[in-house]
Design goal:
160 residues; alpha/beta; Rossmann fold; five-stranded parallel sheet; 8 helices; 49% helix
Length: 160
Amino acid sequence: MPYLIDGYNLLRAVQGIEEFSALTDIQMCRAVSDYLSSVRDHGHVVFDGVGPPDKAAFGGIPCLEVYFSGEACEADDIIEDKIVDNTAPKSLVVVSSDRRIRRAAAKRKAIDVPADLFWQTLLARLEKQANRPAPEPTEKRHGLTEREADLWFDIFDLDQ
């Protein structure tokens, strides 16, 4: 399910939480990217305005495309257009606490998630993933291949 996120709406909701009060837009986007990667999905974040002069930091974020609405229109307009243009709106997740956006999502039967609830879900998922132990290497159960063993014998100058 692709995600469509109202950038500043989510950022302001997150910054309202004391421990995240200093979170920047790029840090939020990276956290969203980590979440989308963990759920194996992709998304779009739309921010109001023209954004920072140097947008390079927003360009290489995996699983996430970041847009700025520009001076001529609002992010809400772009988000509404994306909801209307979506060919599979029932599989679209729209993240915003803005009533206008939530109404537009409901009208197209998209899944609408309030910003604060989405952030809680994101944090829970990332925490669960961080606490997951790393998978065992296959060598632990199956041993080294003959070629790998020969290489170690050569490195330590051992006779076979």
